[in-house]
Amino acid sequence: MHPEDTATRYDRIASWWQTQHQSSFYGIAQLERAIKFVPNKQLAIDIGCGSSGRFIQVLKEHRFQVEGLDISEEMIDLAKQLHPGITFYRADICCWNPPKLYSLIVAWDSTFHLPLEMQKPVTQKLCDALEPDGVLMFTCGGGYRQSEVSGTFQGQDFEYSTLGVNAFLKILAEHQCTCLHLEYDQYPENHVYIIAQKTGSTLS
Ligand SMILES: C[S@@+](CC[C@H](N)C(=O)[O-])C[C@H]1O[C@@H](n2cnc3c(N)ncnc32)[C@H](O)[C@@H]1O
């Protein structure tokens, strides 16, 4: 599915998402784990931040300077109302060129919607946008094969893709990032979250 079609579907459920997730703890323990690995808590960005700003709130509490990015205009507009002082980008992560280097990049349940062929370039882009020792946390489909699946959520059809865990780890290693934590946090659901750090070491 083209990212703009994903955006249209999220536009339709943006208000529901905000009400449902504003005080949700989903993914927050994982975010707290990632934050512990960040040595310099300066600039953080939430990729696919959604309308609730729940990750943004936690990042603010940890005194990061925070930015949010989302492809859905409705999601961004609602998130802005809750966090008026924050820089938001209404952008497709596939086309967005990071203007800065980040201490922490979070992409929770967002990049798993990308078309399969965009998984590799976007993961590379996120690695490249980390400052030295910066941390990336993202979710992806598990397993060792690439795959594409569709599903219905809140009456909207969505698509998901993954390269498989081994391929993501290879991309991280090729882009000077070291995996610090990988967990099937919703097992037996095929949902994985990965925390990696820009250590400067590469695959030899
Ligand atoms: C499942 S929601 C997760 C929202 C938020 N991360 C949270 O956990 O509350 C997925 C979000 O990713 C955004 N998204 C999907 N594809 C995107 C893309 N190509 N670029 C930027 N954002 C995208 C959607 O608009 C939506 O807000």
TrEMBL record:
One of its GO terms (biological process) is methylation. The keyword Methyltransferase applies. Residues 45-134 form the Methyltransferase domain. Gene3D superfamilies: Vaccinia Virus protein VP39. Its EC number is 2.1.1.-. The keyword Ubl conjugation does not apply. GO terms for molecular function: methyltransferase activity. Keywords: Methyltransferase, Transferase. This is Class I SAM-dependent methyltransferase. It comes from Leptolyngbya boryana CZ1. The lineage of its organism: Bacteria, Bacillati, Cyanobacteriota, Cyanophyceae, Leptolyngbyales.
